[in-house]
Amino acid sequence: MSQEIKADKVIDARGSFCPGPLMELIKNIKRGEVGKIYEVWSKDAGSIRDIPKWVAKAKHEMVGIFEEDGYTRFAVKKMR
Amino acid sequence: MAKLVLVCDSGATDKLQTVALVASGAVTSDYEVLIFFMHDAVYALKKDAPAEPDVTSVFPEVSNKINQARQEGKLVHWKELLEDLKDLGELQIIACVQITEILGLEKDDLLPFVDDIAGVNTLAEEAMNADQVISI
Fold first, then answer.
1. Could you read off the pLDDT of B53-94 as tens digits, one per residue?
2. I want to staple A64 with a disulfide (CB 3.0 to 4.6 A). Which of A22, A75, B90, B96 is the partner?
Protein backbone atom coordinates (compact mmCIF):
# COMPACT_ATOMS: atom_id res chain seq x y z
CA MET A 1 0.00 0.00 0.00
CA SER A 2 1.19 3.47 -0.84
CA GLN A 3 2.38 5.69 1.99
CA GLU A 4 1.32 8.71 -0.09
CA ILE A 5 -2.37 8.53 0.73
CA LYS A 6 -3.80 11.99 1.12
CA ALA A 7 -6.04 12.05 4.15
CA ASP A 8 -8.86 14.56 4.32
CA LYS A 9 -8.46 14.66 8.07
CA VAL A 10 -5.74 13.48 10.42
CA ILE A 11 -6.71 12.50 13.96
CA ASP A 12 -3.68 12.42 16.20
CA ALA A 13 -4.67 10.06 19.03
CA ARG A 14 -1.14 9.09 20.01
CA GLY A 15 -1.65 10.47 23.49
CA SER A 16 -4.61 8.21 24.21
CA PHE A 17 -4.84 4.67 25.48
CA CYS A 18 -7.43 2.11 24.32
CA PRO A 19 -10.21 2.73 23.32
CA GLY A 20 -9.36 6.39 22.65
CA PRO A 21 -7.99 6.07 19.08
CA LEU A 22 -10.87 3.89 17.90
CA MET A 23 -13.45 6.12 19.56
CA GLU A 24 -11.92 9.22 17.94
CA LEU A 25 -11.95 7.52 14.55
CA ILE A 26 -15.56 6.42 14.92
CA LYS A 27 -16.71 9.85 16.06
CA ASN A 28 -14.97 11.57 13.14
CA ILE A 29 -16.26 9.10 10.58
CA LYS A 30 -19.76 9.32 11.91
CA ARG A 31 -19.78 13.09 11.56
CA GLY A 32 -17.80 13.06 8.31
CA GLU A 33 -18.64 12.91 4.62
CA VAL A 34 -18.88 9.77 2.50
CA GLY A 35 -15.81 9.35 0.30
CA LYS A 36 -13.45 11.25 2.61
CA ILE A 37 -10.37 9.61 4.08
CA TYR A 38 -9.75 9.80 7.81
CA GLU A 39 -6.36 8.94 9.17
CA VAL A 40 -5.95 8.15 12.84
CA TRP A 41 -2.54 7.98 14.49
CA SER A 42 -2.24 5.58 17.39
CA LYS A 43 0.39 4.31 19.80
CA ASP A 44 -2.11 1.89 21.36
CA ALA A 45 -1.10 -1.72 20.68
CA GLY A 46 -4.74 -2.84 20.57
CA SER A 47 -5.51 -0.57 17.61
CA ILE A 48 -3.87 -2.94 15.14
CA ARG A 49 -6.64 -5.46 15.82
CA ASP A 50 -9.52 -3.25 16.86
CA ILE A 51 -9.45 -0.60 14.13
CA PRO A 52 -9.39 -2.91 11.05
CA LYS A 53 -12.02 -5.11 12.70
CA TRP A 54 -14.33 -2.16 13.28
CA VAL A 55 -13.72 -0.79 9.78
CA ALA A 56 -14.71 -4.14 8.23
CA LYS A 57 -17.75 -4.49 10.44
CA ALA A 58 -18.91 -0.93 9.82
CA LYS A 59 -18.41 -1.50 6.06
CA HIS A 60 -15.91 1.28 5.47
CA GLU A 61 -12.66 0.83 3.56
CA MET A 62 -9.28 0.27 5.18
CA VAL A 63 -7.15 2.28 2.78
CA GLY A 64 -3.85 1.63 4.48
CA ILE A 65 -1.99 0.80 7.67
CA PHE A 66 1.43 2.38 7.98
CA GLU A 67 3.98 1.67 10.66
CA GLU A 68 5.85 4.81 11.68
CA ASP A 69 8.48 5.39 14.34
CA GLY A 70 6.63 4.45 17.56
CA TYR A 71 3.10 4.72 16.22
CA THR A 72 0.78 3.46 13.49
CA ARG A 73 -1.27 5.40 10.94
CA PHE A 74 -4.63 3.94 9.96
CA ALA A 75 -6.23 5.46 6.85
CA VAL A 76 -9.94 4.78 6.51
CA LYS A 77 -12.35 5.83 3.77
CA LYS A 78 -15.93 6.52 4.84
CA MET A 79 -18.13 4.43 2.55
CA ARG A 80 -21.65 5.02 3.77
CA MET B 1 -28.45 -7.62 17.10
CA ALA B 2 -27.05 -9.54 20.07
CA LYS B 3 -27.52 -7.95 23.47
CA LEU B 4 -25.18 -7.59 26.44
CA VAL B 5 -26.32 -6.59 29.92
CA LEU B 6 -23.74 -5.12 32.27
CA VAL B 7 -24.38 -4.78 35.98
CA CYS B 8 -22.29 -2.46 38.13
CA ASP B 9 -22.84 -1.85 41.83
CA SER B 10 -19.58 -0.13 42.67
CA GLY B 11 -18.78 3.56 42.77
CA ALA B 12 -15.06 2.85 42.57
CA THR B 13 -13.49 4.69 39.68
CA ASP B 14 -11.74 1.61 38.32
CA LYS B 15 -15.01 -0.36 38.23
CA LEU B 16 -16.86 2.45 36.47
CA GLN B 17 -13.99 2.81 34.05
CA THR B 18 -14.11 -0.94 33.36
CA VAL B 19 -17.86 -0.89 32.77
CA ALA B 20 -17.50 1.90 30.22
CA LEU B 21 -14.56 0.14 28.59
CA VAL B 22 -16.43 -3.15 28.20
CA ALA B 23 -19.45 -1.25 26.90
CA SER B 24 -17.27 0.50 24.34
CA GLY B 25 -16.02 -2.83 23.00
CA ALA B 26 -19.55 -4.13 22.67
CA VAL B 27 -21.18 -1.01 21.24
CA THR B 28 -18.43 -0.47 18.67
CA SER B 29 -18.76 -4.14 17.71
CA ASP B 30 -22.41 -3.39 17.00
CA TYR B 31 -23.95 -5.14 19.99
CA GLU B 32 -26.83 -3.71 21.93
CA VAL B 33 -25.81 -2.89 25.50
CA LEU B 34 -27.81 -2.19 28.62
CA ILE B 35 -26.02 -1.07 31.78
CA PHE B 36 -27.83 -1.43 35.08
CA PHE B 37 -26.26 0.71 37.79
CA MET B 38 -26.93 -0.28 41.39
CA HIS B 39 -25.86 0.80 44.88
CA ASP B 40 -22.79 3.10 44.89
CA ALA B 41 -22.73 3.18 41.10
CA VAL B 42 -26.02 5.11 41.15
CA TYR B 43 -24.47 7.71 43.44
CA ALA B 44 -21.64 8.12 40.93
CA LEU B 45 -24.26 9.02 38.31
CA LYS B 46 -25.39 12.07 40.27
CA LYS B 47 -24.88 15.32 38.38
CA ASP B 48 -23.35 16.81 41.53
CA ALA B 49 -21.43 13.73 42.65
CA PRO B 50 -18.41 14.68 44.73
CA ALA B 51 -14.93 14.65 43.27
CA GLU B 52 -14.13 11.25 41.96
CA PRO B 53 -11.70 9.17 43.99
CA ASP B 54 -8.46 8.05 42.40
CA VAL B 55 -8.19 4.53 41.08
CA THR B 56 -7.06 2.17 43.79
CA SER B 57 -5.30 -1.11 43.22
CA VAL B 58 -3.74 -3.74 45.43
CA PHE B 59 -0.61 -2.99 43.44
CA PRO B 60 0.61 0.58 44.10
CA GLU B 61 2.37 0.70 40.75
CA VAL B 62 -0.91 -0.02 38.95
CA SER B 63 -2.85 2.71 40.73
CA ASN B 64 0.00 5.19 40.33
CA LYS B 65 0.32 4.61 36.62
CA ILE B 66 -3.42 4.60 35.93
CA ASN B 67 -3.95 7.78 37.93
CA GLN B 68 -1.04 9.40 36.15
CA ALA B 69 -2.54 8.45 32.77
CA ARG B 70 -5.87 9.89 33.91
CA GLN B 71 -4.27 13.15 35.01
CA GLU B 72 -2.46 13.43 31.70
CA GLY B 73 -5.73 12.94 29.82
CA LYS B 74 -4.58 9.72 28.20
CA LEU B 75 -7.59 7.72 29.38
CA VAL B 76 -11.06 8.59 28.18
CA HIS B 77 -13.14 9.26 31.30
CA TRP B 78 -15.97 6.74 31.85
CA LYS B 79 -18.63 9.46 31.74
CA GLU B 80 -17.31 10.83 28.46
CA LEU B 81 -17.04 7.32 27.05
CA LEU B 82 -20.65 6.48 27.92
CA GLU B 83 -21.85 9.78 26.50
CA ASP B 84 -20.03 9.12 23.22
CA LEU B 85 -21.28 5.54 23.06
CA LYS B 86 -24.87 6.73 23.32
CA ASP B 87 -24.30 8.62 20.08
CA LEU B 88 -22.54 5.77 18.36
CA GLY B 89 -24.79 2.80 18.97
CA GLU B 90 -27.42 1.06 21.01
CA LEU B 91 -26.67 1.80 24.63
CA GLN B 92 -29.26 2.05 27.37
CA ILE B 93 -28.36 3.18 30.88
CA ILE B 94 -30.62 2.45 33.84
CA ALA B 95 -30.28 3.43 37.48
CA CYS B 96 -31.70 1.19 40.20
CA VAL B 97 -34.83 2.64 41.77
CA GLN B 98 -34.05 1.37 45.26
CA ILE B 99 -31.02 3.62 45.62
CA THR B 100 -32.59 6.61 43.91
CA GLU B 101 -35.46 6.40 46.40
CA ILE B 102 -33.18 5.98 49.41
CA LEU B 103 -31.11 8.95 48.29
CA GLY B 104 -34.14 10.98 47.24
CA LEU B 105 -32.95 11.30 43.65
CA GLU B 106 -35.09 12.02 40.62
CA LYS B 107 -34.06 11.30 37.04
CA ASP B 108 -33.17 14.99 36.59
CA ASP B 109 -30.63 14.67 39.40
CA LEU B 110 -28.71 12.11 37.36
CA LEU B 111 -26.40 12.62 34.39
CA PRO B 112 -28.26 13.28 31.13
CA PHE B 113 -27.18 10.00 29.55
CA VAL B 114 -29.21 8.01 32.12
CA ASP B 115 -32.26 6.74 30.23
CA ASP B 116 -34.40 5.53 33.05
CA ILE B 117 -34.81 4.59 36.69
CA ALA B 118 -36.11 1.05 37.12
CA GLY B 119 -36.32 -1.84 39.54
CA VAL B 120 -34.69 -5.23 39.69
CA ASN B 121 -37.60 -6.85 37.87
CA THR B 122 -36.53 -4.85 34.86
CA LEU B 123 -32.99 -6.10 35.36
CA ALA B 124 -34.19 -9.70 35.66
CA GLU B 125 -36.27 -9.42 32.53
CA GLU B 126 -33.51 -7.74 30.55
CA ALA B 127 -30.97 -10.29 31.77
CA MET B 128 -33.16 -13.24 30.82
CA ASN B 129 -33.64 -11.80 27.35
CA ALA B 130 -29.99 -10.86 26.81
CA ASP B 131 -27.38 -13.00 25.12
CA GLN B 132 -24.82 -12.36 27.84
CA VAL B 133 -24.79 -10.77 31.28
CA ILE B 134 -21.61 -9.50 32.90
CA SER B 135 -21.44 -8.22 36.45
CA ILE B 136 -18.60 -5.84 37.21
1. 899 899 999 999 999 999 999 999 999 999 999 999 999 999
2. A75
In the structure, what pLDDT confidence band is assigned to residue A3 with cuts at 50, 70 and 90?
A: low
**DSSP string covering A21-79:** HHHHHHHHHHHS-TT-EEEEEE--TTHHHHHHHHHHHTT-EEEEEEE-SSSEEEEEE--
Is residue B136 within 8 Å of B22, Cβ to Cβ?
yes
CATH topology of domain B3-135: Hypothetical Protein Ychn; Chain: A, (3.40.1260)
Which among B20, B42, B44, B45 has a CA at the least distance from the CA of B33? B20
Cβ <8 Å between B73 and A15:
yes
Q: How many domains does chain A have?
A: 1
What is the predicted pLDDT for the residue at A2?
Answer: 45
For B13-45, what is each residue's pLDDT tens digit?
999 999 999 999 999 999 999 999 999 999 999
CATH of residue A73's domain is 3.30.110.40
Q: CB–CB of B48/B108 below 8 Å? A: no
Q: Chain A within 8 Å of B22 (Cβ-Cβ)?
A: no
Q: Is residue A3 domain-resident?
A: no
Q: How many CB atoms lie within 10 A of CB B108?
A: 8
Q: B106 to chain A, minimum CA–CA distance in Å?
A: 31
